[in-house]
Specification:
Number of strands of chain B: 10
CATH class of chain B: Alpha Beta
CATH architecture of chain B: Alpha-Beta Barrel
Helix content of chain A: 40-55%
Helix content of chain B: 40-55%
Organism (chain B): candidate division WOR-3 bacterium
Strand order of the largest sheet of chain B: 1-10-9-8-7-6-5-2
CATH topology of the largest domain in chain A: Rossmann fold
Largest interface: A-B, 26 and 32 residues
Distance between the termini of chain A: 20 Å
GO molecular function, one term (chain B): uroporphyrinogen decarboxylase activity
CATH class of the largest domain in chain A: Alpha Beta
Shape of chain B: globular
Number of helices of chain B: 15
CATH architecture of the largest domain in chain A: 3-Layer(aba) Sandwich
Oligomer: heterodimer
Shape of chain A: globular
Structural class of chain B: alpha/beta
Number of domains of chain A: 2
Largest sheet of chain B: 8 strands, parallel
Structural class of chain A: alpha/beta
Distance between the termini of chain B: 38 Å
InterPro entries (chain B): Methanogen_methyltrans, UROD/MetE-like_sf, Uroporphyrinogen_deCOase
Number of domains of chain B: 1
Protein name (chain B): Uroporphyrinogen decarboxylase (URO-D) domain-containing protein
Number of helices of chain A: 9
CATH topology of chain B: TIM Barrel
Number of strands of chain A: 5
Protein name (chain A): Cobalamin-binding protein
Order of helices and strands of chain A: HHHHEHEHEHEHEH
Strand content of chain B: 5-15%
Chain lengths: 215, 328
């Protein structure tokens, strides 16, 4: 089977074609997990590469993500225990007061397509909700996003609460967003900062010491 | 274009002097209403919804820091709200609904009917008060049509249709541009200088090709209208501007406010001090950034974006005071 067709359809954000191909591959008896890994994920990897070298920008990534999810939604119910086979669990969200979630959504899709289970808390998320979710879900990574200087202070307060409640031992906190810098991340005690979505994937792999590209 | 009142070109107009290369630099850390309201312990929603209060807090900021211009900016959603989008304050405004595809019908009329929450009149009132009271250049911040189109249609959806449905995207941009032209007419009658903020047109978001196709011409139209009245036209785009710097330079604006002022332009640049340095840095770091920025032949020494609400007063004062030591 030529999985390259699915990959190319994701890269070209041909959502209908992605859905059609995924169904065709399933009809031919191909394992859903194989279609996901060899087709959709490779497509998003290529989108990530194009984004990193500035051939793709936010609009192109948003459209490709839409295509990826169209196929992903068909496949995931068919893949038993897909979460357990993933590389790790990540809780992601935009901090309180901030409704700018495009950057977060792009990071989310790139991490998801790289094999991580994602719990997306959305935008304008109160500090306490992040903490509650960390306690309940016990993720390996907490990813915080902020696009505004007025709201980025919540990153610091979330980290302080995690420290105070001694919840930092088994979790890495990463931060990102337009006003965030490595210097700021260091100052507030985050474990890492990434400038963009591709950087976020590399950062998580480095922090979790993951070398494989496979699910 | 209607005749404007006589222009307030005076000896204290250091910004104009820098544009005309009669002076090396002017100083303006981008202090906006949120920071000033915070210092005065005023409810931001009250300030953002009352032209007189807005003028009061901005005047306070000017008298506290003594910079060389004032920018009337409360939040980015003035025009979007006037065109029917809804906001929520907590305490700063957030856009909670947009017009989305319903804009299609509105395009049939030249400009959307203003709704009851039209705060452009507050901005105009504030501009009138400040131009009467303060003997320095007064600028009003308006949104670039590309960014306004994002707010009106919903940012994520609009960014998708610039690729997938160019006709619709152009319709939304045209609506935004037409609205801004009408708004500008009123502002330029006061008269005030204009800063056009177009953050969503940054190369951190869209490609140079998309910028050229959708953001460039609307900006040029607005700049042409501003300059036809003799007022100053500034453009602010944050994030990465390197891939579009030639386009920006060719907009014919008087000032380009960008993060990386080492980029070569024929247009006067504005920037040089990081907002994070002002927020978290100390005197030596601020001084270092000022000295580096003043290597430019001419400059509006400024922050790369609006200063954060909780920026220490001492740091902003330090920026202005250190810079004054380098004045001619």
């Amino acid at each position: 089977m030529d999985f390259d067709e699915i990959k190319k359809a994701v890269v070209a954000f041909e959502t209908d074609k992605v859905k059609k191909l995924v169904r065709e591959f399933l009809d031919k008896g191909i394992e859903p997990k194989v279609i996901l890994e060899q087709g959709l994920v490779k497509g998003m990897n290529e989108v990530g590469r194009l984004f990193a070298i500035k051939e793709y920008y936010v609009p192109e990534v948003l459209l490709a993500s839409e295509s990826f999810y169209a196929g992903f939604e068909i496949l995931t119910p068919l893949i038993a225990g897909v979460e357990k086979s993933m590389k790790g669990k990540i809780v992601i969200g935009v901090v309180q007061g901030d409704i700018h979630d495009i950057g977060k959504n792009i990071v989310k899709v790139m991490l998801q397509s790289s094999g991580y289970e994602i719990i997306d808390l959305g935008k304008d998320v109160p500090d306490e909700r992040f903490i509650e979710t960390v306690i309940q879900e016990q993720p390996q990574v907490l990813a915080l996003s902020s696009l505004m200087t007025t709201t980025m202070i919540h990153m610091e307060s979330i980290i302080k609460i995690l420290n105070k409640r001694k919840l930092r031992k088994n979790i890495k906190v990463i931060v990102g967003g337009a006003p965030i810098t490595q210097e700021y991340a260091d100052r507030i005690g985050a474990d890492g900062y990434a400038e963009d979505a591709s950087g976020a994937v590399k950062l998580v792999e480095r922090l979790l010491e993951i070398n494989t590209q496979k699910f | 274009m209607a005749q404007v009142k006589s222009l307030r070109l005076n000896s204290r107009d250091k910004v104009r002097a820098v544009i005309e290369h009669r002076r090396k630099f002017a100083i303006f850390p981008i202090v906006c209403a949120d920071h000033c309201a915070y210092l005065l312990n005023k409810n931001f929603k009250d300030v953002a919804n009352d032209g007189r209060k807005l003028a009061e807090v901005l005047e306070y900021g000017y008298r506290l820091y003594k910079y060389d211009m004032v920018l009337i900016f409360s939040d980015p959603y003035i025009e979007a709200e006037a065109m029917g989008c809804e906001l929520e304050y907590s305490p700063y405004p957030k856009l909670i609904s947009n017009k989305g595809r319903s804009l299609t019908n509105a395009i049939k009329i030249k400009v959307l009917r203003l709704n009851s929450r039209d705060r452009t009149k507050n901005i105009i009132k504030s501009a009138k008060i400040l131009t009467e009271k303060l003997d320095i250049p007064i600028f009003v911040s308006i949104k670039g049509p590309f960014t306004l189109a994002c707010f009106l249609y919903g940012t994520e959806e609009f960014l998708k249709i610039v690729i997938s449905d160019e006709m619709r995207a152009r319709d939304v941009i045209d609506t935004a541009t037409n609205f801004q032209l009408e708004y500008l007419k009123k502002l330029l009658m006061i008269p005030v200088h204009i800063f056009i903020g177009d953050p969503m047109a940054s190369a951190s978001v869209i490609s140079p090709k998309t910028f050229e196709k959708f953001a460039c011409e609307p900006l040029q139209i607005l700049i042409k209208q501003i300059k036809s009245t003799g007022m100053i036209a500034g453009v602010h785009i944050c994030g990465d501007t390197k891939p579009i710097i030639k386009n920006l330079d060719n907009l014919n604006a008087d000032i380009l406010s960008i993060e990386d002022i080492t980029l070569k332009t024929k247009t006067l640049k504005m920037g040089g001090v990081s907002t994070l340095t002002l927020l978290n840095g100390d005197k030596s770091k601020i001084k270092k950034e000022i000295e580096s920025a003043l290597k430019e032949d001419f400059l509006i020494l400024s922050t790369s974006c609006d200063v954060a609400v909780h920026t220490p007063v001492e740091n902003i004062k330090t920026m202005v005071e250190i810079a004054r030591q380098y004045e001619d």
